[in-house]
Amino acid sequence: MILPSSNSNSSPSANVGRSTKGSNPVHAASLVDPAAHPPALLQLLNIKIEKHVIEKLLTFPHTDYVADCVSEAVDYALGRPWSPRSSHTSLYNADFAAFASVVLSCAEVTPGTLLVALSYIARARAHLTIFAEEWARECVFLGAVIVASKYTQDSTLRNVHWAACSGVFGARDIGRIEREFLEVLNWNLGVHEADLMAHHEGLSSACAKATRASRALQAGPPAYNMYLAPPPYTHRRRSSLPGLEALPSPQSSLPSLTPSPRTPSPYP
Q1: Cβ atoms within 10 A of the Cβ of 96, count?
Q2: CA separation (Å) from 154 to 41, 66, 213, 216, 254?
Q3: Coil, strand or helix: which one is 130?
Q4: Rounded to whole angstroms, how far apart are CA atoms 207 and 180?
Q5: What does the longest C-alpha to C-alpha distance in the chain come to?
Q6: Burial class (CB in 10 A: 0-12, 13-18, 19+), 264
Q7: Which regions are flagged for Polar residues bias (predicted)?
Q8: Pairing mode, if any, of strands 24-27 and 128-129?
Q9: HSE (CB half, 13 Å, CA atoms) of 184?
Q10: Residue 246: which pLDDT band, with cuts at 50, 70 and 90?
Q11: Helices 51-59 and 65-77: crossing angle, nearest 10°?
Q12: Nearest to 191 by CA among 45, 78, 57
């Protein structure tokens, strides 16, 4: 299980890897001996979320694993069939990918936080109710990342800083997104190794392709140059952006993330 870090004064990047607690080795993300974790999980926790990795995770055609996870959850909530190769998904993912890349980079999101956020998105998928598609991906992604960050880190960004990282939402917007995502999760924030390992294949594949593309860039003219460049970041803060504390309406530019009728949860 991923637990809060024991060092409240450390930077986010310092929470990846090993630390010591007394004479026993302790992994900073789980606070237990790394030997207790399967090697595949340690591989995920040691992913470096740097620029070329973020671009590969979010913008490489048909392998945008993180963007696909979010889009699948949103399409499911909207009752729409989802396909990673559909033109509809590709168009929406391109713009959303730029937004998510900026948030991951600006907030210095750690691998452990990203893994927990992906687990929350998968868990929330069956309980989301979304009435307006515009901004839905951004709200689901931000809600998952913010909740995951606050659950796994002793020291995390304030809502005003998350708002600045988003470049779109205000601090009050961030507060509502967080509260509504917590309600969708029914405040059940615990995660298990199986929740994290469900993303091993997708994340590992994306990172491997990112590494190969990065080496190709260093070796000569890149074969994937058209893919590596992130799409233009077109999101802009609008003066007409409604406050999220208002009741949702068909005219609202931002969706309300509300829980659907809940089935018994497998999590205690």
Answers
A1: 26
A2: 22, 25, 35, 39, 30
A3: coil
A4: 31
A5: 59
A6: exposed
A7: 14-23
A8: unpaired
A9: 27
A10: very low
A11: 40
A12: 45
For β-strands 128-129 and 258-259, DSSP reports them as antiparallel
Query: Which residue in 266, 264, 245 sits closest to 256, CA to CA?
Result: 245
Burial of 119 (0-12, 13-18, 19+ CB in 10 A): buried
Torsion, Cα of 88, 90, 95, 101 (10° steps): 140
pLDDT, residue 113, reads 87
**Which pLDDT tens digit goes with each residue over 201-229?**
777 676 666 666 556 655 655 444 333 33
Q: Which two tokens stand for residue 200?
A: 């091993």
pLDDT at residue number 249: 32
Strand partners, 25: 20
Tokens of 53: 């990795």
Contact predicate 30/2, CB 8 Å:
yes
Neighbours of 177 (CB within 10 A): 30
Q: Which two tokens stand for residue 15?
A: 């929470």
What is the spatial distance between Cα 69 and Cα 194, in angstroms, rounded to a whole number?
17
Asked: is 48-195+251-259 a CATH 1.10.472.10 domain? The reply is yes
| pTM tops 0.70 | no
- Phi-psi domain of 22 (left: phi exceeds 0; alpha: psi -120 through 50; beta: other): left
Tens digit of each residue's pLDDT (9 = 90 or more) over 80-126: 876 665 545 555 667 787 888 889 889 988 878 888 999 999 999 98
Give the residue extent of every domain in the chain.
48-195+251-259
The tokens of 213 are what?
């593309």
